[in-house]
């Protein structure tokens, strides 16, 4: 199937804008880097990048078109994403005292946790899911 050059250009421009505008992913990566050092920040970035690749693959196979056709499924993903972001915020608030007395700074953030949470913040990010749905609707 030939690729529509205008649609591809629109997709690339929209993707670049979506990645440049700071959002929950960028804030999460910065937080991981501040708490766990460069290694945790890089692993969180790798998790976000992995998730972006998953979004592209999902859009390519047409799951985004399913979300466009079934708005309830899209709403479920958006609500799950919002709930996960609230969970991360509550965890940050609950553990802020540990950061002030140095206990969590010494412990840091595990690489595995940084990677997986980075992947989840992007997979459940309504902005990224919505981008795929909008592009699928234009097809």
Describe the 3D structure.
The chain has 139 residues and is mostly helical. It has one domain (5-138). It has 8 helices and no strands. It is globular, with a radius of gyration of 17 Å. The model is unreliable at 100-106 (pLDDT under 50).
Mass-distribution shape: globular
Order of helices and strands: HHHHHHHH
- Percent of residues in beta strands: under 5%
Largest sheet: none
> Helix fraction?
over 70%
Terminal Cα separation, in Å? 13 Å
Count of helices?
A: 8
The low-pLDDT segments are 100-106
- Gyration radius, in Å: 17 Å
Question: Mean of residue pLDDT?
Answer: 78
Number of strands: 0
Which descriptors apply to this entry?
139 residues; mainly alpha; cell membrane; LeuE-type
Topology record:
Blueprint: H1 5-20, H2 24-61, H3 63-69, H4 71-94, H5 96-101, H6 103-107, H7 111-123, H8 126-138
Helix pairs in contact: 1-8, 2-7, 2-8, 3-4, 3-8, 4-8
Précis, in short:
This protein has 139 residues and is mostly helical. The protein is 88% helix and 0% strand. It contains eight helices and no strands.
